[in-house]
Amino acid sequence: MRLPIRQVLEAADLAKICITGSHGYVGTMLVLSLLDQGHEVVGYDLQWFGDYIGKPQGFSPVKADVRDTARFAEAVKGCDIVLHLACISNDPSFELDEGLSRTINYECFEPLVVAAKAAGVKRFIYCSTSSVYGISDSPDVREDHPFVPITLYNRYKGMCEPLLLKHQSDDFTTVIIRPSTVCGYSRRMRLDLSVNILTNLAVNKGVITVFGGAQMRPNLHIKDMVRAYQVVMDAPKEAVAGQAFNIGMRNLSIMHIAEIVKGVVEDRYHRPISIAVQPMNDQRSYQVNVEKAKRVLGFVPQFTIEDAINDICDVFDVGGLPNSLTDDRYYNVKRMHKVWDALYKDAPPSKFDATAGIMSEIDMLRMVSAR
Ligand SMILES: NC(=O)c1ccc[n+]([C@@H]2O[C@H](COP(=O)([O-])OP(=O)(O)OC[C@H]3O[C@@H](n4cnc5c(N)ncnc54)[C@H](O)[C@@H]3O)[C@@H](O)[C@H]2O)c1
Q: Given 3.100.10.20, 3.30.43.10, 3.40.50.720, 3.40.640.10, which CATH number is that of 16-370?
């Protein structure tokens, strides 16, 4: 079935979509799904974690850096929609080289938006994260909840949001999504995300180690993540322009996730799994409310955590995730160590002028909190 994107395109129902971060965990499954629906996709990515897509019909990979605005401006020509996913995508990887990470996750962001708009792109969808909320006691974190960014990754993901909204105009629709932690199988697999970590430990070690356990985290199946992009691409401009949406399925404590994993894996393999608890000072804890996505977009998740665990187990069963406890390709920070050693360790610091035409951080955080 082809996805109608009539809200973006006047007459045609197929789009040309540029995805940054196309070769990542989410990007890979998103590209394959959009190609399946007949869209043309430009995949802009440095491919740090490999290439699990190849070159199917309709797909144009561009192996390049999001900080190379001139190259991006060229790649985005003729595209109707940009989905911006590329970034250093977790806390430990970000902290490996804060200067480098800042240039990728934040400093190049507004130039990308400007280049996309100048190229005639009609809709720019930015993938932020629910972790911008940081810590909250509220059982109901809605989109207007203040950001409490307790890590640099959270902070810079949030600081891009107002930079995008500045460029909202009648012919350039800007939308932000704030996804929960994603789980389930992707051809470019990550085993450093909560449900995926715990499933790997249960299946391959028989012991699930939980750090802390009380922290609350919202979760989202990767198939629902992919569908959420499609829903936002197709939503009427008036409904989404300048808006942010929490996208999530179920808020659970890490201990509760471990218990679900234990139950699914024990039932499936008929052997006991134990849970070991270790102390932890991870303070990130929040529960998101996803009512707005349901009300405005009609988006209701269809897949469960149990589905994600079973999907991963199916792949383990056929040997599809070899060396899952050790291979760096499944673990962003391990792979980023290698990338950094090879490419960036001896590089001069960024020459990017962070003050040119960009608001102060305080201004931006104020804008975000006020929404
Ligand atoms: N995975 C999650 O649980 C989750 C949750 C909330 C939000 N997000 C957001 O979703 C997006 C995708 O996450 P993911 O899990 O697929 O991450 P990922 O790390 O698997 O993919 C990121 C991709 O970006 C590419 N990339 C990094 N720096 C680049 C650069 N300078 N130029 C070009 N490409 C570059 C990498 O090569 C990689 O393929 C990210 O923006 C992340 O912040 C992810």
A: 3.40.50.720
